[in-house]
């Protein structure tokens, strides 16, 4: 068995596609009317479709999971994030853990938690 994709729920699939392309270089592989597969296995799903599937409301900023990315040049990434998306809500600005890894944690446009760290 293989894990093939990770799905996140978004309010505006086109804005989210642009966001993940701008910041992480992810490109669209398939657009299936409310379900969009991006490179690296990230799937964006329209909020309405997800609500219909689960029969419940969406809880954003739930902090129970995160998308994790690695970036060797993290200072440059943070500069790009602040320039392109100055309204970003941070969990923590760029910091260095006791083991030497630099990380930044923030929410995407829909409250999905993201961590970007330097490779270990």
Task: Provide the structure class.
Answer: alpha/beta
Characterize the quaternary organization of these chains.
single chain
- What share of the residues lie within helices? 25-40%
Termini separation: 27 Å
Portion of residues in beta strands equals 25-35%
- What composes the largest sheet? 4 strands, mixed
Count of helices? 3
Number of strands: 8
CATH superfamily caption of the largest domain: 2,3-Dihydroxybiphenyl 1,2-Dioxygenase, domain 1
List keywords for this structure.
26% helix; 8 strands; 33% strand; alpha/beta; 4-stranded mixed β-sheet; 2,3-Dihydroxybiphenyl 1,2-Dioxygenase, domain 1; 120 residues; 2 domains
Characterize the structure shown:
With 120 residues, the chain is an alpha/beta fold. It has 2 domains: 1-58, 2,3-Dihydroxybiphenyl 1,2-Dioxygenase, domain 1 (Roll), CATH 3.10.180; 61-120, Roll (2,3-Dihydroxybiphenyl 1,2-Dioxygenase, domain 1), CATH 3.10.180.10. The chain is built from 3 helices and 8 strands, in the order βαβββαβαβββ. Strand 3 (35-38) and strand 4 (42-46) form a beta hairpin. The mean pLDDT is 96.
Briefly summarize what is shown:
The protein is an alpha/beta fold and 120 residues long. It has 3 helices and 8 strands; from the N terminus they run βαβββαβαβββ. It has a 4-stranded mixed beta sheet with strand order 1-4-3-2. Strands 5-8-7-6 form a 4-stranded mixed beta sheet, covered by helices on one side.
Q: What is the secondary structure topology, with strand pairs?
A:
Blueprint: E1 6-10, H1 13-24, E2 28-31, E3 35-38, E4 42-46, H2 47-54, E5 67-70, H3 74-84, E6 90-96, E7 102-107, E8 113-117
Parallel strand pairs: 1-4, 5-8
Antiparallel strand pairs: 2-3, 3-4, 6-7, 7-8
